[in-house]
Amino acid sequence: MSVADFAGLARRSPSWLRLIHALLSPVRVRSYLLIAVGALASIFALWLSSLGLDNAARDQAAREFQADTAQRAARLSADVQRFQRPLLAADSIIAAGGDFGGVCAPLARGPLAAYRPRVSTFRLDGSLRCSTVPNAVDDPVAILGRPYFQAALKTGEDQIGGPLVGTFSRRWSLTFAHLVQVDGRLPGMVVLAVDIADSAEVLGVNKHNERVVVVGQAGEQFELGVSDAPSLPAPVQEAVSRAVGTDAPCPLVIAAGTAWTCSRAHGTGLMIAVGRPERQLFSHLYDHRRRGEYQVAGVLVVALLTALTAEMLFFQRFFRTYRATGLPALGAAELLQRDELGVLEDWVRGTSDVRAVLEAEVATTEGLRDLAERDLLTTIAETVEIRYPFLRNHGDRVGRYARQIAIRLGLPPRDVDAVEFAGRVHDLGKIAIADSVYLKPGRLDPIELTQMQLHASRGGEMAARMHTVRAQVAEAIRHHHEQWDGNGYPDGLEGIAIPLWSRIIAVADAYDAMTEERPYRPHPLSHAQALQILEDGAAKQWDASVVAAFVDVLGTGTILAKTGPEARVGLADAASD
Question: Which residue of 102, 316, 333, 479 is most buried, as measured by CB atoms within 10 A?
Answer without folding.
Answer: 479
